Amino acid sequence: MTTGRKKPERRGKGRPTSEQSGVGREALISAARELLQELPPAQVTSTAVARRANADPALVRYYFGNRENLLFEVAQQIGAEANRQVTDEGVPAELLAEMIHHTFRFTRSAKHMQRLMIEELDSASSPRVREKMREWNRHPLANYERIQEVDGDETLNRFDPLFMHLAVVGICDFFVSGAPLIELLVPEDTDMDELGAQYEAFVTRLLTEGVKKRPAT
Question: Smallest Cα–Cα separation from 103: which of 151, 137, 150, 153?
Fold first, then answer.
């Protein structure tokens, strides 16, 4: 005797059913990027990403295998946007200033990116991930080297590309990571975006003027 009740269909292995709703790979990457603007990397879990994308957490496993690979893809996408080669022409001090501005823009667009690279991807188990991170982080060094080549020791004092990169990254990143402390040091009604613009201008002037050659006296 049958009851007329239809048995639920069993889903085979493979693509989760939420894929049918249109949630794809790029949507998960976008959700992870949004969360990295709001949360430290440790809190950007597969479940949190799936919830933000309105997807089944199994999609993270389906597309990326694990959370580490997802965060690697996020870093890869942001890194591709951030690492642009310096042009062969231009005023060296202006090229240096643009590098500094670019680092500030990158830090604002990827609030917890530096922490992601340090805490998560630097200790990644995959040699591919570690090597790719090393490659990305050498791009700015190459750009600083290129600026000095363009200058030809004419207008800028020689500087170590590694030290310049570390200084710029640290200066830019602290305005984001140190925001709670900075807010304690300024009036409560301070416009933090405006303060950030003023700080960026100050840092750019400080560094570019600092490496400029002075006329001999």
Answer: 137
